[in-house]
Amino acid sequence: MKKGVFIAFEGLDGSGKTTQFNAIINKLAANGISCKAEKQPSNCNPIGLLLRDIVQNADGPTFSPRSLAQLFSIDRYEHVTNNIKPYVDAGEHVLIDRYVFSSFAYQGQMFTFDEIYDFNRESIELLMPDLTIFIDTDPDECTRRINSNRANQEMFDDNGDVIRFKFLYSFAIMKDITKIVKIKGNQPEDVVTESIWKAVKPLFLS
Ligand code: ATM
Questions:
Q1: Ligand 1 atom closest to residue 40's alpha carbon, by position in its atom list
Q2: Ligand 1 centre and the CA of 80: distance in Å?
Q3: Domains along the chain?
C-alpha cells in the first residue's frame, strides 16, 4: 500500500501559519484530495489538553521547563503513534500545525539541540514529515499581529527573534532528514498561499 503524505507547518505565533494551514487544506480539498488535519499540542490525549491549558492560560498549571519539554515530547509520541503514523501507513495524507521543530525552537530557549533531540528521539525515529513548511514572518510583524488580533498572549509570545533563530538553526542541522521549505510570511495572504501551494502540489499532483 502506498503511504500517505505527511506535511508539517511551522512558524512563530502571528506568522500566519494556521491561516495558511487551513488555506492549503481547502486547496487540496478543491483538487479532490482529502487530508487528516492535526495539530500539536494535540487534542487527542490528556497531556495535549494539559499543554494547551499551560501555554494559553496565564492562571493555568505551571511546570519546570524540563517537565514542560518532556510533556511536549510525551504528547508528540502518543499523537504520532496513535493518531498519525497508522493513518499515513494506511495511505491517508496528514497535515499538522506544528511538529518537532516547534520543540527545537520554543524549548530551544532553555535546552540544547541535542537535549531536545533526546527528548523527542522516539517520535523523530518513528515519523518525520515528507515536507516541513516554515512561514518565515518577521518577529516584529508577528508581535504586531498578535497584539491586534488576540485577547490573551500565549506563554512564548515574547521572544520571537530567539525562537526564529532556533527554528533556522534546527532546520540547518536536520536538512538531510526532512525537506524544509521556507516561505516569506510578510506578503499578502494569497501570495503566501500560492508559494506554499507550489511546494505542496508536486507531492500530490504530478
Ligand atoms: P499554537 O498557538 O500554534 O497552537 O501553539 C501553542 C503554543 O505551544 C505555542 N506557544 N506560544 N506562544 C508554541 C508552543 N509549543 C511549544 O512550546 N513546543 C512544542 O513542541 C509545540 C508543538 C508547541
A1: 22
A2: 16
A3: 6-204 (3.40.50.300)
